[in-house]
């Protein structure tokens, strides 16, 4: 089949550390590995060389990138968001017209990409990756939930297709008026994340011996991750197993508060690559108390690492795990049940061993190759839609959830 020219627009990308950056890189590199011409459009990061930019020479085979201005995100200075760039994108795509524009994030740069693409009549697909409306309740701006949902609905309904990671999220968004939704799940590198990377030497740095129980959490140390529930579980478990350890991998605005609330917790900071894989594999029990994920890549990484998991019945955990088979699932908003399940797993080594063995089996078929293939098929289908240059939707129309001239072409291909 013919290669696609894909303009891939995202406000976050490695070396930034978050689930969106990680999965975006997997899709970009997966498309390139399948022979497609991908141009990555993202904000300039602090690590980027000053001379890098749209006109800078790039070595043969390197990912073609267009770096645009950005600003640090409040409370997350290590992350950046793009600035409005409609004019620059119009000039870029008039000169190098892509077959399809894929928008991974709905911030100012993503909004600019949607406007520019619609003005040029370019097909657009998008990801729904972050549960902004759920996050708002954790930052004292719950009153913005409805306007945020209206904005997102207008944004995504102006696209030819919106990709979501789980069937449950597809159904939830459909009830809120989102259109043309299709499930493309996430994958995991089952070679990188594997039980074989367990390290007694690493565990020793945490103060844990070979037979001591280590509880692990991986992700941003932020209010929306609900880590207070993990601390409650740890404190209950320590009453029965005083040598148990809790290891929190990541950083974020709640780091100091969490350390103050639980001085015995081990804070490792952000880990990447082989070091991250070793941290996962060196845990004995994985706690994932978040209830705001659209997916939750950490669930997949923990599964591949052969860990018993305690989570809420939500997002990736709710889709992939079977309670008592490869994990333990608490109903949403039932924190006492979550704590009780963590205590049950902590006190039953045979249960942990059985869940761990099945967790690895569950993860084995979830490699990235098949996921990227499904993503590619959706892009081909959207790229094949007949587009006409249109007046871009107004900000007022999007805020109302009814962008002017919104595309009504459905995605007709069968589910992948």
UniProtKB/TrEMBL annotation:
Residues 387-416 are annotated as: Disordered. It comes from the Bacteria. Residues 387-406 have a biased composition (Low complexity). Residues 407-416 have a biased composition (Polar residues). SUPFAM superfamilies: UDP-Glycosyltransferase/glycogen phosphorylase (SSF53756). Transmembrane segments: none annotated. Residues 17-192 form the Glycosyltransferase subfamily 4-like N-terminal domain. PANTHER family: SULFOQUINOVOSYL TRANSFERASE SQD2. This is Glycosyltransferase family 1 protein. It comes from Aquincola tertiaricarbonis.
């Amino acid at each position: 089949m013919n290669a696609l020219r894909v303009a891939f627009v995202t406000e976050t990308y490695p070396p930034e550390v978050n689930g969106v950056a990680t999965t975006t890189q997997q899709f970009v590199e997966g498309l390139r590995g399948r022979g497609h011409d991908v141009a990555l459009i993202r904000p300039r990061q602090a690590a980027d060389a000053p001379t890098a930019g749209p006109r800078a020479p790039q070595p043969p085979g390197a990912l073609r990138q267009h770096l645009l201005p950005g600003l640090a995100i409040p409370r997350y200075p290590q992350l950046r968001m793009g600035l409005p760039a409609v004019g620059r994108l119009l000039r870029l795509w008039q000169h190098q017209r892509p077959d399809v524009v894929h928008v991974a994030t709905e911030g100012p740069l993503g909004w600019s990409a949607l406007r520019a693409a619609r003005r040029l009549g370019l097909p657009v697909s998008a990801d729904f990756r972050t549960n902004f409306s759920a996050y708002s309740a954790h930052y004292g701006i719950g009153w913005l939930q409805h306007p945020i949902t209206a904005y997102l609905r207008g944004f995504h309904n102006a696209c030819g297709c919106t990709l979501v990671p789980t069937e449950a999220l597809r159904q939830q968004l459909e009830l809120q008026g989102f259109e043309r939704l299709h499930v493309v799940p996430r994958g995991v590198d089952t070679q990188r994340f594997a039980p074989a990377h367990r390290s007694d030497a690493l565990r020793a740095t945490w103060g844990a011996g070979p037979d001591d129980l280590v509880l692990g959490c991986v992700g941003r140390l932020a209010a929306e991750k609900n880590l207070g529930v993990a601390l409650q579980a740890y404190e209950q478990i320590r009453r029965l197993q005083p040598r148990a350890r809790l290891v929190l991998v990541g950083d974020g605005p709640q780091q100091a508060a969490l350390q103050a609330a639980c001085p015995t917790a081990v804070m490792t900071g952000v880990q990447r690559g082989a070091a991250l894989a070793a941290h996962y594999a060196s845990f004995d029990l994985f706690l994932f108390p978040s209830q705001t994920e659209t997916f939750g890549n950490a669930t997949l990484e923990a599964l591949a690492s052969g860990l018993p998991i305690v989570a809420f019945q939500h997002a990736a955990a709710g889709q992939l795990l079977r309670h008592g088979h490869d994990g333990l699932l608490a109903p949403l908003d039932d924190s006492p049940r979550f704590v009780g399940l963590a205590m049950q797993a902590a006190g039953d080594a045979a249960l942990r061993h059985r869940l761990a063995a099945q967790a690895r089996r569950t993860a084995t078929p979830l490699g990235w190759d098949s996921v990227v293939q499904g993503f590619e098929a959706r892009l081909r289908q959207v790229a094949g839609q007949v587009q006409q240059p249109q007046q871009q939707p107004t900000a007022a129309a999007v805020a109302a959830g009814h962008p002017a001239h919104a595309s009504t072409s459905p995605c007709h291909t069968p589910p992948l």
